[in-house]
Design goal:
The chain has three helices and four strands. The chain has a four-stranded mixed beta sheet, covered by helices on one side. Keywords: Hydrolase, Protease. This is Ubiquitin-like protease family profile domain-containing protein.
């Protein structure tokens, strides 16, 4: 139930939550999902559940050296049980897969090197298709 230390523009003020993140605490949507870059070296994901006053933290590295940054806002932070990466460079892909799994249940479970490469190509294909669909809709209007 913790979040990692975040770099701040004013380190002398200690660890604090960036204003953009704090603005999501008052969001009216039931769920707000956002990627989180930690110290410019790792990606994690936060999902804010407004109804339950809970923030789910997905971190594929499963680091336990964290401290609670959102306690003052009375949100419970829950670490999400999910596949863990076994290297130091697939965290961005794991965050994308976490978001993708929330939208489409058919993400697959092959976490081998070839399975992860296939998922990278699938994500790229989805982005290109979505861009092409948007462009064709814009041209027809």
């Amino acid at each position: 139930t913790t979040l990692p230390t975040l770099k701040t523009p004013a380190p002398e003020r200690g660890s604090r939550i960036p204003p953009l993140t704090l603005s999501l605490v008052g969001a009216t949507e039931e769920y707000v999902s956002m990627p989180l870059n930690i110290s410019s070296s790792h990606w994690a994901c936060l999902v804010l559940d407004s109804a339950r006053k809970t923030i789910y933290c997905y971190n594929s590295m499963d680091k336990r050296l964290h401290h609670n940054l959102l306690e003052e806002h009375r949100y419970q932070i829950t670490l999400v049980h999910s596949p863990l990466q076994n290297d130091g460079y697939h965290c961005g892909l794991f965050v994308c897969l976490f978001f993708w799994r929330r939208l489409v249940n058919e993400v697959g479970s092959d976490y081998s090197e070839s399975g992860l490469m296939r998922r990278r190509w699938n994500i790229l294909r989805m982005i290109v298709q979505a861009t092409m669909n948007k462009d064709s809709k814009d041209q027809s209007n």
